[in-house]
Amino acid sequence: MKNLYIILSLLFILILPETSYAQFPVEEEDEYYEKEWALGVMMNTYGGVIGGITIRHARKYFYEHKIVESLGQGSGKTRSSRGRVGEIENDNKYHSFSLEFLSIKHPKEQKVQSYTTGEGYVSGKMNRLYAIRPMFGKEWLVFRKARKQGVHVNFIASVGPSIGIVSPYLLKYQDDEGNTQTKQFSQDDYLNNYTRIEGTASWGESMSKASVIGGLAFKASLTFEFGVNKRSITGIEAGIIGDAYTSEVQIMASSDNRSFYSAMFLTFFFGGRK
Known about the structure:
Number of helices: 4
Distance between the termini: 38 Å
Signal peptide: 1-22
Largest sheet: 8 strands, antiparallel, barrel
Shape: elongated
Low-confidence stretches: 12-30
Protein name: Outer membrane protein beta-barrel domain-containing protein
Structural class: mainly beta
Strand content: over 45%
Helix content: 10-25%
Mean pLDDT: 81
Keywords: Signal
Number of strands: 15
Number of domains: 1
């Protein structure tokens, strides 16, 4: 976790100064776009090298109005159409929509090995927590890159529901007769039976017993796009995320649990625009 904080800090230090020199003469015809989509893989300080996946879509911030045209003086006939306005006034603003799937881990999770099989498991863990986050917000252009050079930088602020999926952390263990059983361990089970643990049960078995908890999510981030042309983009997104649930989520068997989780994140993404 400390290494990820260091990586995120270094990226901000190294990249942000470069963006101040990335404002080359802009060719609007090449860099103007109305829609953008991206698929990304996330690292975050919730834990784990791959902490989630995200799909993001941005759309130009404009509105439509009704245009009525006369078909000729004295004809009494008109033609109606829809027109879009706001492109000039809101040239640097976009609507942002994203769907994210994250694995949220407790800060005190630590993986150990089974005494009997050597298989890894998290000692003291009681539940897994996954978050499905439909996010809605605004995206502002901070720096626009020139054609085929520089860095395109956007700021994104989003909020939305956080659908928490809580699945029991099931462990395989040997009972008193030497048979392998599966169950969710309590704090006392970890203290008294840790030498009998063989490993974790299947992910499917755990998810079949999952429950759902509601909450609210937020995200604030900067995106750094390095696409070589106006049709394709690659880059990174870095910032902070948070999930607040309606009640405490018992990830660990101990009493050290919470209803709010926050983290720094780094997402590598690719996509396109038009």
